[in-house]
Amino acid sequence: MKISNIEFPDKPLFLAPMEDVTDPAFRLLCKRFGVDMVYTEFVSSEALIRSVNRTQQKLTIYEEERPVVIQIYGHDPQSMADAARIAAEANPDIIDINFGCPVKKVAGKGAGAGLLRDIPRMLEITSEVVKAVNIPVTAKTRLGWDEDSKIIVGLAEQLQDCGIAALAIHGRTRAQMYKGDADWTLIGEVKNNQRMHIPIIGNGDVTTPERAAEVFEKYGVDAVMVGRAAIGRPWIFGEMKQYFDTGDLTPILSFEEQKAILKEHVIASVKWLDIDETKPSNTDPFALSEGVDSNLYHQRLKGIIHSRRHLAATPVFKGIPNFKETRIAMLRADTLSELFQIIDSVDNTSVFK
């Protein structure tokens, strides 16, 4: 499968763009475990044009994570074109347009999935962004605004006509948010539409290796995008690849190895958010320093707080009896010394008794 001139292996897996999740520290971990393409957190076009520091930081890309996509969102065609030009200067492999974010602060302002209620504007934005840059432009959207307006089959053709190089589809409407089950039927219909000639990427509820293999086989999509299932579990991509190749569902990491990856991710987040604010572009967060200064182990750090979403979502501790209090303590810990002491103290031998 190819997107423009970028070649991918059979059954490629992509890391979905997720706000406060897909920063470089997490993307590089997922890359280590075999993900084929990663997306940045989504970037506000208006904030990018205004040179907001936090937004500009989202444009940081490392060579080790390629191919990498910068995703932008907004409601104004000219601002989106200007933002695409700025984003292209960071040298991503692809610019993606977010037409799928359902949260009120985005969709309620006529951006993200909000544009599913203003198709002419969506198409104008797409055309302007495609014209603005000399790299491939893709889009990510949903089935429609609500149950009564599942317009994706026709919309996909219109977006293709605007010049996008690939289309990712989340199998829910905006009204569903993230509730209910993702409906892949229409994703498959788009893929099997003979008028479509660009790659179709399926997204929604792909949480296991078996499900990933099933949607490739059943719906014929060109790639599968994994989102929430990867939070706190970057090795899921390695598990999926192993299953594709061998049919083996054996975990690729032991319990202790999984804990070590969680700790490594926390340290990488600390390096990304708390150490070396200049963030040299040729140095990834896992190598900003050989280690974290011992003095930092007892300080309250932004990177630890940032990691809590991964610690809360990780399946590593699933099934351990009476773990609730330990989980609460883990999510309240705000120093490396306290957090790592808690993680190190957990064993899973009782699960197998």
Structure in a nutshell:
This protein is α/β, with parallel strands linked by helices and 353 residues long. The chain is 39% helix and 12% strand.
Characterization of this structure:
This protein is an alpha/beta fold and 353 residues long. The protein folds into two domains: 2-246, TIM Barrel (Alpha-Beta Barrel), CATH 3.20.20; 255-352, no CATH class. It is built from 14 helices and eleven strands. The protein has an eight-stranded parallel β-barrel with strand order 3-4-6-7-8-9-10-11, surrounded by six helices. A two-stranded antiparallel ribbon has the order 1-2. α4 (77-88) runs parallel beside α6, α7 packs parallel to α8 (185-191) and α13 (324-332) packs antiparallel against α14. The termini are far apart.
Quick tags:
353 residues; alpha/beta; TIM Barrel; 2 domains; 8-stranded parallel beta barrel; two-stranded antiparallel ribbon; 14 helices; 39% helix
